[in-house]
Design a protein that fits this description.
By secondary structure, this protein is of the alpha/beta class. It is built from 14 helices and eleven strands. It has two domains: 2-167, NAD(P)-binding Rossmann-like Domain (Rossmann fold), CATH 3.40.50.720; 178-212 and 244-316 and 334-348, no CATH class. The mean pLDDT is 95. It comes from Caballeronia glathei.
Amino acid sequence: MEKRALIIGASGIVGSNLADQLVTTGWHVSGLSRGRTAQPSAVEPVTADLTSPESVSRALAGRTFSHVFFAAWARQATEKDNIRVNGGMVRNVLDALGPAGGVSHAALVTGLKHYLGPFEAYATGAVPITPFREEQGRQPVENFYYEQEDRLFEAAERYGFGWSVHRPHTIIGFAVGNAMNMGVTLAVYATLCKAAGEPFVFPGSRAQWESLTDMTDARLLARHLEWAATSANARNEDFNVVNGDVFRWKWMWSRIADYFGVEAAPFDGETRPLEPRMQDAGPRWAGIAARFDLKEADLGRLASWWHTDADLGRPMEVLTDMTKSRKAGFLDYQSTPDAFFALFDRLKAERIIPR
């Protein structure tokens, strides 16, 4: 059977890397979005308002896809609105495609807030013991990830297709205009520090500085998604997905600083979030972009200070177990330092940051 994929969010950090992976391995790939952001050139664009069932139904009428991948979310002011909007997006797509019977598998990408709770209730409850394992289940809080899962499970049962849920940790990967992108944010931050002759100050908590942690390369996540979509062992299962190595930020921070040729400031135990410190960074970045002829002068399309602050400011260890994937047959691995350096090299090659 021809493998025809529909990616929701094909221009984002997850979706664009997934599209590259699937195209390379012979899939036909379409991307469903509002059409505001350019998608990879090999992706067939499909334009619709994902929050409107009528718009989605019209856009997908007469189209068939063997696999659907949800790799997007729309951030709202409250978690109740996140639940309504993001759960509705999953429902709208699957209700438009399900009745035709062509879908064999649908995959949903969420994340470790499955265990930590949503941003507005972040880690306020009894966070499970690390490393996080799939068997630990849901937290007793409202969480749009759970709503998305429930809409996926409901549609799979109604229309008879398989599903998988993927929970990456913080994702390292190339994307511009992405709302949650620590790798690009740190590259921009280091570039600003270098231009100003300022030290590279760790913005997070003592717990994150000292504890073990892990991350997820977007390319490895793409391979994990393809594996789960085509493996009987992964059908109707939820999976954590991380690189496979562990590190402490007290070790990683100086390596990132060395890459950019900036001084890593000694950590004194105080949390210094980026968002309030970067209020005047927009004009500074525009000046750097003009001086080095960079492609993107709008700092808001590159740096997500709030998201990096949330990740690095967490007051507890965040570490993920990959045993379930390993036992099911996914044995891939990615060095996290190499993932950072590969991203930084590409950002230079694409003229997003100075060479």
